[in-house]
Design goal:
Chain lengths: ~110, ~240
Amino acid sequence: MNPQYKKGVLELCVLALLKKHDCYGYEISEYLSSRIDIADGTVYPILRKLKSEGLLTTYLQEESGGPPRKYYSLTALGRETYERDRAEYLNFARTVETLLEDDDHDKE
Amino acid sequence: MTRNEFLAKLSDELKKKKIADADDIVSEYEQHFAFKMADGFSEEEIAAKLGDPAALAAQFEIAGQEKKPKSSRAIAAIGLFFADLFAGMFFILLIAWEIITAAFSVCSAAVAVSLFAGISPWSLIPPMPYGCGVIFGLSLAGLAVLSAVSTIYFAAFIRQLMRSYGRFHHNTMAAASGNAILPSLSVHPRLNAKTNRRLRTVTLFSLTVFAACMVLGIIVSMIVSGALEFWHAWGWFGYPGK
């Protein structure tokens, strides 16, 4: 699939995951790369971008036996942005779907 | 590409592109390696799946146009300086109170021991029959234990309060300079359940002993001296004794 398609949607997927619960970087990377075909490394730049936009914050959590992990968590702005973008995306996807399916029917 | 080659290349590329917090980014990838290697992947496999370091660094270039909050950092430092001064005075007060409760406990114990021994150091303890002295001594022993427990608990409280304030101080600075913050600490000391239970039992027991023996001591003293105001009969507080 065209990597350009994925890029914008990946941000939305990260927000969707973080809306459920706070995660550390590796958790997010594993979650996405097991479902979507992307290079493992691309998740970290996305996290950084979302953080610099103020949609995420980070905090360190001490783990038993190991260095502290950096957790990502949605900010209030992140939550708002997610809800809005989610609605927009679903709307858009539905439109695209109907357009593409119309095309199928035309061929038949 | 091995782990070290990948990380070195990434670090190089990030620095070449003058991306802020390159070390922070590299440590994120270091952790990724650590997790993957724990799952049994080889360094080469992991590096291949991560993607080209140069391409990743380029993505950070797009991602990381963040403003560095330099001035807010200075303001936070000044604010914290005054907060520290105020908190410092507050902690000195709390520690002074801690010393007072400790001293109170020691004094109560000393008086209790004198009463049991039937002695009056420097004639500080007013005269009374030995039996009454023992009852009052028991009561003061209870008071000594009670104040010792409160000293212990208060010490734990002050310690936790200081740690909590230290965490707040750290997090305020971290937030102002854009670093990751640690979870804040509760101001309540967390003693383990066993210690808690013991302290509670000791408190209840010593409180009961203190109150019961005090009342009993007064009643017995009234009967023995044959007067409601037994301190008059025994010539306490400068009253002429019988």
